[in-house]
Amino acid sequence: MAREKMCCNGSGWGKLFFGLFIFLIGVSWLGNEMGWWVFSLPWLPLAVTLVGAALLIKWFIRGD
Question: Measuring CA to CA, which residue among 51, 6, 61, 60 is closest to residue 25?
Answer without folding.
Answer: 51
